[in-house]
Amino acid sequence: MTATGSRPSPAHTGSTATNDSRAHMAIIQGVIGSLMMLVGSVGTGWIANGSPMVRHPLVIELRVNVWGVYGCTVLLTVGAMLLIRSWLRLGQRLRGWPHGSLRTVMIAVIAWSLPLFLAVPIYSRDVYAYIGQGRLMLAGKDPYVEGISSLDNWFMLGADPEWAEARTPYGPYFLWIAAGVVWLTNAQPDASVMLFRAVAYVGVVLCMIYVPKLARLHGINGARALWIAVANPLFLISFVASAHNDALMVGLAVAGVYAAATKYPLLGILLVTGSIGIKPITILLLPFIGLLWAGKGASWPRRFVIWAATALLSFGILAVSGYADNLGLGWAWALLDPTPGYTGYSPSGFLGQQVERVGNFFGQPGDALASVFRQVLQYAAIALVLVLMFVGGDRRIVRRMALAFSAVVLLSPIIQPWYILWLIPLLAATGIKDNWQIRILYIVITFFVVFGAQDQLSVWPFIDLSVSVSQVAFVITVAFTLYLALIDPRTRTLLTHGGFRGWVDPGPPQVAAGTTAHKD
């Protein structure tokens, strides 16, 4: 595959136009995959105990019969893998990214996301926790102090028990949204899920608008950036089917970065502040928004003054917002709360496990050594952020912002699958090369889609299954992944094309036709 985003030469214009028309075949295949996931979600998605759906004859039929549970598992997992293949094939069929490619990618995003919009929640049930937090707000309780277990019948609305005593990690603006959703639906779980999905879809639309704009600002092909960042299956599953509020956080952040990079720094600060008010992690973007505001050739005194002004403006708005609803600065404490544990697939988690094993082998306290190791990685991430703030002047500020954000996320001990989606839009808009960078992205996206397909399946506990649905899903997804990598004549060369050189050769420049790279 050579989806580089370079300008097609006149000799290839007809060929790329043909590829553009053939791209609709990939879109249709992706729609089939999404529809399969929609049907499969009825039997294996997360349904709240208090939902009327649990009494629907079709739902009962699919959830109490072994054939229904297994059938829905197959539909959900095969559909997810078909969506991955469709995404890969769309990039191949739009090779050269000719005129009209952006429209084609947007059609794909809309067509693939609509069935997922109607699906039972899959890959996560956090959306049900949002209902609980909205109820806390309407009950006059502080979600930064109390967990949803303080509410009557909280468990009937589908939330994971892990949320029972947990303080909310979300900002005040999302709590307002959650309260509004619960007030409008009277906490009816199915209607609430659909409204939370609509909120998340606002973030998807913002990404659809501003990722290509930000890419063109940096001389990067907007269609390719959109295909990488928004059309990928992990984005659509996590931000549409799962309705994660991270979608709105990312959408506001990308819009704010674009505003700041186009000489509207105050609007940029307001939009990024809105993003922080959804989930506070995007506070990391503020120092780089300040650099964009300071402008080219800014002296160090000016940069420090602008940094202070940026922080005062953003934090002042958030403080006033919090006190207006008696939430105070709870969002800040939520940001600073240490998260216990680690995920084994994160670099920090995996390497920490190896440190623990080595320590135990030599008779040392392996667990303590692993904990120190993970803390060192977190401090290293903070150091990298500071380096990227102070080194580089006014060059490639948005790219440095993306790398700083990536360092904090990737060196954290806990990485949820959708955390990767925080990084991809900014990285795609500033250039992901057609070498190891895009190939690693293929692997990461596929891994997390496979992981979610077998990890997040809801089956009623009284169903007697000889083989667990997780095992069935695991076999299907691994087999399909091997098919894509080793057998499928269209996709098997994605990781091997060009041999070793294909991993290290940056390929042609990713510039969009008629543009020049923007240096921030």
TrEMBL record:
Membrane-topology descriptor: Multi-pass membrane protein
Broad class of where this protein is predominantly found: membrane
UniProt subcellular location: Membrane
Annotated transmembrane regions: 26-47, 67-88, 100-123, 191-211, 223-244, 264-292, 304-324, 372-391, 403-424, 436-453, 465-486
NCBIfam families associated with the record: MptB
Keyword Glycosyltransferase appears in the UniProt entry: yes
GO cellular component: membrane
Molecular-function GO term, any one: glycosyltransferase activity
Key words of the record: Glycosyltransferase, Membrane, Transferase, Transmembrane, Transmembrane helix
InterPro entries from the UniProt entry: MptA/B-like (IPR049829)
One Pfam family it belongs to: MptA_B_family
Name this polypeptide is given: DUF2029 domain-containing protein
Stated family: Belongs to the MptA/B family.
